[in-house]
């Protein structure tokens, strides 16, 4: 999943970006409200972690703007403001959850997993499933026909993006955005290489090429779920 981190404290932002990358999120970090809005308008994010006290445009204003544009983005508020009033304001503006600073990283991870699940209503646990293709997003494990499949971080992210919308055609650019943050170099054939590996590890027709458009997950090739 791709996550936008909005935090003006450089030390905290840096540490959080690293910690979240360690949880297999693709993380882009911005330090102002305006750059947060610009990022959200330019690209797709699955989650946002938002500080409220930001220079210039306040976090609350950013959340209000996101909601007024009806972007379906789960937002977790991070704030040192511990007054009830500020928390209420943040949630009323359209935040989905909040954590008070200082916080425990494990609690942040758990809350983000919960928000990610909410985004995908069909999922009961930290699991994305299509037929016999299963991804456990909490433990970063994959299986196919009940056998574990070992995936690289990017293979996992790519399959996660496709599995979240089975059958939908994704353009190459959309898929690359779910795999790489800004400043990460994308080699021109990297996506094809990841897709090639996924086809070998699962089945050749699991990921279909739609000529001139992009790629889609083929539900039929994911196999029949047994005993369900
Ligand atoms: Ca701040």
Which features would summarize this protein structure in a list?
4-stranded antiparallel sheet, alpha/beta, binds calcium ion, 39% helix, 5-stranded parallel sheet
What does this structure look like?
With 228 residues, this protein is an alpha/beta fold. The chain contains eight helices and twelve strands. It has a five-stranded parallel beta sheet, with helices on both faces. Strand 7 (133-136) and strand 8 form a beta hairpin. The longest helix has 15 residues, at 105-119. The chain is elongated. It starts with a strand and ends in an 11-residue tail after the last strand. The relative contact order is 0.11. The mean pLDDT is 90. The protein binds calcium ion. Calcium ion binds at residues 8-9, 51, 53-54.
Shape: elongated
- The share of residues in helices is 25-40%
Q: What sequence of helices (H) and strands (E) makes up the elements?
A: EHEHEHEHEHEEEEHEHHEE
Number of strands: 12
Strand residue content: 15-25%
Give the low-pLDDT segments.
Answer: none
Per DSSP, the total helix count is 8
Distance between the termini: 27 Å
What is the mean predicted local confidence, pLDDT?
A: 90
Task: Report on the biggest sheet.
Answer: 5 strands, parallel
C-alpha Rg, in Å?
Answer: 18 Å
List the bound ligands.
calcium ion
């Amino acid at each position: 999943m791709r996550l936008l981190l909005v935090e003006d404290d450089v030390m905290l932002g840096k540490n959080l970006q690293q910690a979240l990358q360690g949880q297999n999120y693709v993380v882009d970090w911005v330090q102002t409200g305006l750059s947060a809005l610009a990022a959200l308008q330019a690209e797709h994010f699955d989650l946002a972690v938002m500080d409220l006290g930001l220079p210039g445009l306040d976090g609350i204003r950013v959340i209000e703007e996101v909601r007024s544009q009806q972007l379906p983005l789960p937002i977790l508020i991070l704030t040192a403001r511990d007054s009830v009033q500020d928390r209420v304001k943040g949630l009323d503006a359209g935040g989905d959850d909040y954590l008070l600073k200082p916080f425990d990283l494990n609690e942040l991870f758990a809350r983000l997993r919960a928000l990610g699940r909410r985004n995908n209503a069909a999922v009961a646990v930290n699991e994305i499933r299509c037929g016999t293709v299963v991804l456990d997003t909490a433990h970063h494990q994959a299986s196919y026909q009940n056998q574990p499949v070992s995936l690289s971080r990017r293979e996992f992210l790519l399959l996660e993006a496709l599995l979240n919308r089975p059958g939908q055609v994704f353009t190459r650019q959309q898929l690359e955005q779910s795999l790489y943050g800004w400043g990460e170099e994308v080699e021109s054939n990297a996506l094809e290489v990841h897709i090639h590996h996924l086809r070998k590890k699962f089945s050749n027709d699991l990921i279909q090429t739609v000529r001139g458009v992009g790629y889609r997950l083929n539900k039929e090739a994911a196999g029949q779920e047994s005993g369900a």
